[in-house]
Amino acid sequence: MKVFGTTKISYEIEQILHSANHYLIIVSPYLKLNQRLKVRLSDAFKNVEDVYILYRENELKNQERIWLNSFNNVKLLSIKNLHSKIYVNEETVLISSMNLYEYSQINNHEIGVKIDNEEDAPEFKDALNEIRIMIESEYTEIDHNFNEIIESVENYSMSRLFWELNENYTFRQFNKNSQRLYEYISDKSRELVDFSEDELYQDKTAVLRATELGKIRYQFLEKELKKLAN
Questions:
Q1: pLDDT digits (tens), the chain, 230 positions
Q2: Rounded to whole angstroms, what are the CA distances from 106 to 2, 28, 111, 224?
Q3: Are 6 and 109 contained in the same domain?
Q4: What pTM does this model have?
Q5: In this structure, are 143 and 81 located in the same domain?
Q6: Cα–Cα dist 226/91, whole Å
Q7: Do 147 and 194 fall into the same domain?
Q8: Final residue before a domain boundary, out of 119, 137, 152
Q9: Per the structure, how many domains does the chain have?
Q10: Structural domain of residue 174, as residue ranges?
Q11: What distance in Å separates the CA atoms of residue 10 and residue 93, rounded to the nearest whole number?
């Protein structure tokens, strides 16, 4: 997690636009799209599957709405009393005091916090969840693709499954947090579902803690392994 001032925030916003590959989320109460910004946005929109732009109710000019709606992958979401400024792609969240139209200005005193998906995974997930709450506060149904974005940052690793079970249940004579308990849970997991060789340790005796189970396998194993608790 890093803290930036005005000039670096402008650079980071451009980097988020430039490096977005799968999705782009822009939360900015006020949007003023000059030609330079339109070029930047247009280039970004062409490279991603889904774009979500949250703006403050009644603060988007009709000509800008028409231009943004010309892109099939852009979803415009009007939010009452919106004051947050957040810029997101699959790698980075930038929470800032800077509106999108101000990003090229250097005379305002701005501050921003950059959150990295790999280094700050819990905070990255929390930021996305707050955006979800903003959307759900105004709309009865949230876009299916946005739910998939939220889903993509969920941790469904074997390590998380172990710690969830370890924290909430006891298993036979095994001590909590012990390696023997992890091996026991791994053994039972391998009996319940199939794992590929690259998801196991070299000696094939246990599942790698870093193995991503995915939502379906995770929920199935959690349900079945609970049954083995004391």
A1: 999 998 899 999 999 999 999 999 999 999 989 898 999 999 999 999 999 999 999 999 999 999 999 999 999 999 999 999 999 999 999 999 999 887 777 778 999 999 999 888 889 999 999 999 999 999 988 888 888 888 888 888 899 899 999 999 999 888 988 999 999 999 999 999 999 999 999 888 899 998 989 889 999 999 999 999 98
A2: 19, 18, 12, 57
A3: yes
A4: 0.74
A5: yes
A6: 34
A7: no
A8: 152
A9: 2
A10: 158-226
A11: 14
